[in-house]
Amino acid sequence: MTTYRERVLVEAIPHLINQEITLRGWVCRIRVLGKTVFVVLKDCTGELQCVAEPESIKEHHLKLEDTVEIVGRIRAEPRAKLGYELDIVRVHVLGRSGQHLPFTSYSNLESVSPETLVEYRPLAIRHEAIGNIFRVQAALLKYFREFLTQRHFTEIVTSKLVASGTEGGTNLFEVKYFDRIAYLAQSPQFYKEHGVAGFERVFETGHVYRAEPHATSRHLTEYYSLDLEFGFVDGPEDVIQLERELLTSIFASLNEWYGDILLSYRERPLPSMLEVPCWEFARCLELLKEHFNRTDLTDDLDPEAERQLCQLAARETGVPAVFVLGFPLSGRPFYTAPRGPAGAASSFDLLFRGIEITTGGQRLHRREDLEHALRSRGMDPANFESHLKMFEMGMPPHGGLAIGLERLTAQVLNLSNVRQAALYPRDRTKLTP
Predict the structure, then answer these.
(1) How many CB atoms lie within 10 A of CB 339?
(2) Which domains are delineated in the chain?
(3) What's the pTM?
(4) Angle CA(301)–CA(303)–CA(305) in degrees, nearest 5?
(5) How far apart are CA 294 and CA 292, in angstroms?
(6) Which secondary-structure segment (H or E) carries 54?
(7) CA 141, 350, 218, 318 torsion-angle sign
(8) Could you give the angle at the alpha carbon of 124 between the alpha carbons of 118 and 129, nearest 5°?
(9) pLDDT for the residue numbered 169
């Protein structure tokens, strides 16, 4: 047996021609041509074709998806895809795959149901078409962190067990917490605001939970939220501009480092978001009436309106994205700052390729204003005392946003259902695996 330290990854092989090495990975293809058997081995860095005489490895009865250790010698081979192959010296089977797998890491997945892909998740993400979704998702997280860290944001980690909801206690999952009831957090909003009072600029990435019985292609009950909050803003426009720059930076990095993968899912590279327009909510209703004869909306947008507004934005700028600012204050959380005297909110949504991927805005930053907002909605400020007292410690004017990671991933990669961008999706019926 070999040790972990003796193992070589596929990516290092170009520097090891004519050397005997040890590889470990999965058998993803087997071909027998005359007196030669070709075994393609896959690890976390790539694939390599290994060759042997059939009789020399017959005793191992190799199957697709077996995990193996292969010892052999690397040689140059111009006819091989990578320009080299490994001549097998010996094989050790580390773990056997099942006899009746529903698909393999090289199957055509068109006939495989989404439910099967989730039930056999490790095998599915070994398949390039599925695994690349989550490689891109990991890169979105990485570039989100990098952009904000470079701009003096501090990453915070906050509790997901809370005593009450951030939006008045609706759509919450109850949890038995010793001798009382707690809830799964529907947002880190309160904690982000506390962070602003301490650090000025903060961000967090983490799961949030919404007990909403949706059954659509865009909703999950557990999703991963990219949140940020920062102080000393002059208005929601500051938050909008930050997101323009944030997404432009993230998309540019994806184009540079994941361009080949992106082109497997979309026709063109991701766009710059710097020129994405910002339209007032009232203006959006006018545009919907003018271009689509929509007169049925008054205080919010429905999914069809989001698609229609993105169409109009694409005609204007070439990018199917638009910030919608100034939703009716009555439909936004109590901590939302007002926008002018006409009942509008300093709150916005970013619509991208026909779906809302971001909600953000400016918040109320004075305790007395928050208390007034709570009372006006029939809520008792005493129930929010642990939060309200934080506003006695010198809270600056502030704002922020939250991006749904699964929705962003789905829109970046042209996925038809947000569940495709969740490694283990949770909705009103799904709790396994």
Answers:
(1) 22
(2) 4-95 (2.40.50.140), 126-421 (3.30.930.10)
(3) 0.95
(4) 55
(5) 5
(6) helix 54-57
(7) negative
(8) 120
(9) 55
